[in-house]
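pinning this so it doesn't scroll away 📌
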Amino acid sequence: MRLPRLTFPAWLASLTLYAAASALCAQSGAPNAVVAVDFSNPGLSPAHWTLTLHRDGSGHFRSERGDPPANSQQVIDTPNVDRDIQVSTDFAGRIFQAAKEHNWFNEQCESHLKVAFQGWKKFSYSGPGGHGTCTFNYSKDKEIQELGDSLNGVAETLIEGARLETLLQHDRLGLDKEMESMIGAVKDGRMRQICSIREILEKLAGDSEVLERVRKRARFLLDSDAER
C-alpha cells in the first residue's frame, strides 16, 4: 500500500515541527546559568556560607558554624544548614540582570577603602554569556553593594529559619523573643525573601502548643511582602 504524498503545506508544517523539537532539545542541553555567592567572616556564626541561585529562583544554601560572637546572648547556636531553597522569580531575575550589567562579575568589585570589615563576598556567574568572579568586603558600586546586602539578607533569613526549627524542638518559649527580633529584622531590611522559609512559619502559625504571640507573628510574616 502506498503512503500518501505530503502536500507542500503539510511538508512545511512537518519541517517546522522538527525544527521546533530540535531547538527544544538543544535548549535543554544548554548550560544552566548559575549565580553564586560565597561569604566568610570568622567573627560571625555561621562563619561561612554559600548560596547558589538559578533563574527560576531555585537554588541551594549551605552554612558552617563558627564560634559565636563574645557578646552573643543566644543560648542555642544556629545549626549547620544544607538544603535546597526557593526564592521568588522576580528576585532571582534582578540578581541575574545585575550580573549581566556588571559583565558577569568580570570587573573589580573591591573599593580598597578603609572601612569596617563586613565579611568577604565572592560573586560568581557561570552560564550562557560567559563566566566570571569578583570578591569584595565593601564596594563603591552601589548596585554591587546592594546586591551583597540583598543576598546576605536571604542568607540571614535561611539561617533564622533553621534556628526557628531548632527552637521549636528544644526551646518553645525561646521562640517568643526570636520572633520579635525577626519582625524587626524584616522591617529594616536585614532579612529578605521570607518566602524561602514559608514551611517553618506555616508550622509555627498552626501550632497550638506555642504562644499565641508566636503564632500571630508567624502569620504576619507569611502575609508580608515576599520580596522582603
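📌 and the second one:
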Amino acid sequence: MRQRVVIAMAMVCDPELLIADEPTTAVDVTIQAQILDLMKRLQAETGTSILLITHDLAVVAQMAHEVAVMYLGRIVEQADVRAVMKAPRHPYTIAMLESLPGLHQAHETLASIRGAVPALTEIPPGCPFHPRCDHCKAGLCDVGGPPALDKVSEGHLVACVRAAEIHP
C-alpha cells in the first residue's frame, strides 16, 4: 500500500519524468499488477514519462517502450522493447532472457549466467561481461576498453564486438 501511495503522491505533482526504481520489489504479483496499472493509468492521464529501473524482465515487457540493458553501470544494449525481447544481440541480454522460467521448461533446470559480477574496482579489460560470456573470443573481447554502442539495426544499439555474429 505504501508503494502505491508514494507513486500516486509523486504523480499528483504532475512531473514530466517519474523515476521509478524497483517500484514492485518485495510485493506479490497481485499488488505488483495494481502498482503497474496505477502507473500506466496516471501516465496516460498526465502524459508523464516514466524511467523504470528494474531487474524484472516481465515488468519491462509489460511497461516499457524503450529498453536500455545495463551491465556494470554501462549500457550494453538499447532498442525498443520488442527488439530486445524477441531478438537480443548482446550476450548478457541473451543470457538473462534464457534464464527466465517458461512453461515449456517445467522439468528442466533453469539456465544461469556463470561466474559472478565483478566488483566495480575490479572491472576486467575489454568487454566487462567477457569473463562470463559464452561468446567471448580471447584477444578480441578481453583487450582494450569497453566496446562502444554500435548500431546493429535501425534503432538497435549493442556494445559487443561480436554482435554481428551472435544470433539468439
